[in-house]
UniProtKB/TrEMBL annotation:
Keywords: Activator, Repeat, Transcription, Transcription regulation, Transferase. The lineage of its organism: Bacteria, Bacillati, Bacillota, Bacilli, Lactobacillales. Residues 188-294, 301-408 form the PRD domain. Coiled coil: none annotated. This is Transcriptional antiterminator, BglG family. It comes from Granulicatella balaenopterae. It holds the Pfam family Mga. Signal peptide: none annotated. It comes from the Bacteria. PANTHER family: CRYPTIC BETA-GLUCOSIDE BGL OPERON ANTITERMINATOR (PTHR30185), TRANSCRIPTIONAL REGULATOR MTLR (PTHR30185:SF18).
Amino acid sequence: MVTKKEKMMIKLLVEHKDNFVTSSKLAKEMNLSDKTVRKYLNQLTDLLQEHGGVLESKPGHGYRFNIIDTEVFAKFWYQDVSAKNKCTDVTQLEETSDREHYILNKLFFENANLSLTDLYQQLFISKTTLMIVLTEIKKMLLPYDLKLEQLDNQLSIIGEEQDIRHFMMDYFFSDKLEEGLSAYVNGSFLEDEINIAELTIIVLDECREAKLTLSDFVIHNLVLHIALMVKRLKSGYQLQLFPVSATIKYSKEAEVAVRILERVQEVMKVSFPIEEANYIALHLAVKQSALLERVQGAIDEEQSDLEKMIKPAISYLDSYMGTDFVHDKVLIKGLIAHLTPLMYRLDNHIQLANPLLEDVKNNYLEIFTLTKEALAPIPLLKEYQISDDEWAYIALHIMAGFERFTNSQKIRCLVVCATGYGSALMLKNRLEREFAGNMKIVDVISYYQINEEKLKGIDVIISSISLSNLLFPTPVVHVSVFLNHEDIANIRAFIDKESYPAVGNEEMKGEPINEITKVFDQVFHQERFFVFKEETNRDEVLSQLIDSLDEDNPNFKNQFMEQISLRETYSTIVFGNHLAFPHPTMPLTFHEKIAVAICQKPLQWDKDHQEVRFVILMSPSKDRNENIKVISPMLVEFVEKINKQQEILAEPSFKEFRKVFLA
């Protein structure tokens, strides 16, 4: 099955057919890192060849796709790539986290008792896969004293209401508070006393208490408007007239709106006139309108009329700003959710002053102007005279999207320090001052907190303690806690390499090719190279590899095994599903050695990795590890070299391994 990202990659390659295109350009178009794009390209090489195409790479030029067999490729294109899948954008979920979010959203926001049978069909997954997803959801709920109950083929959440709200706040809102529109507006325009997180809790509490069913996007939009309402009132702007129908005025939603504003008044020390409660009631009740039915359809189905309507405007912005808004679901859904109350205001000639208008015009005039140029022609808006106040509200969505895009281009960094909080904070502050435009510090952790979860999505580890005895799939830059000039130069060199990757062994490794060959021969040896032709198991492979290190200590094997187990408590040592890199957390030998096992039949390493074909055991030296420092990044790159792995598996000998690895 071709994944969504692979489909997108193939479509881009077809668009650039017969011409070279760089991986950095593809990365920009897909909103991915250059490294990730190269990984996908490696994975697609064989797939395209099987279906009538050839993917060619040329140093300094990039990649070029050619169609060799038109009939075979056409069949592949129409059946597997361009044809529509039966499921919508919401349900065409390939990652476990996406499926978890889909199920949790149904359970918490739609108050749905989900049928297992319906989920199989909606998500297009097997029962086994669904059970794995549900097991992960149960683990997520456990710290909140919540249970996922399965009774008569139905799923439901069991637990106290306060615990349910706690989970919803943490899972659906906490992360988005840091990257969504409200975070951008709060950080750029609003006073410190307007606490977005506190407003979210108030809205969530009152809506849950009244059993109002709202999506997380509607809640985010409402919270933002309440924050701007506070700013507007403090700036002296007040709604003079905001009429609503009797249906809304005497509804449950109106009662909830009053309770929300009463709590906000108490917290924010500001008084709200009744018109403001009407405005909040509209946000809560507008889900009943015909327009919102279209809006909700747009949120659930990628090809809805409303989303089609705004896509050209988004593309227009991309062409001028160099962004990738067409793939920013947060922006698209946010704009769609914004259109509902906007249309109500326009239809009823309600003027809503924007307290941020002058700030937006003075500091972001180009984006403000582009927003008007892009969205004014869409059919839904072109018949109306829209005030600059309203355009500024819409421009905020575009500005927040631009902020997300800018952050997505930054190197994502994990800072590792000793346990001292003061030194960690000092290093973090220095890094932010030096690399604010190029780096996003995701977290600051201690050595003992390193695990697989912490490494997800990280581009580089910057550590004030040496991690040279551990192998990670992520590059490591070792620095002083004081971040001296040499450290800064090393980090800049890494950023430059990530932005403009070199081509060829000599440039990539920073070592002449003949020196790399010498290094290889220092750590690898034919006597430490094994081929397992029949099925085997992890312990048998490790035992043989450790024996080949030829150490006299009778307890050496047990010590090495214990060290490997300890290393695996930090994070996985299986990279790319097919390669395991067992190694100790501390050196046990006086010489740098690497032992290799090739498994011609898949080896089950653990329950999550059952297709291992290469086991590369590293034993660092108690003294210096100059050779392993050179080899380690080559091993990490080898993980992505699918073609090289297949060459070695086809002819599993030490001679072939050496030739292919050094090529």
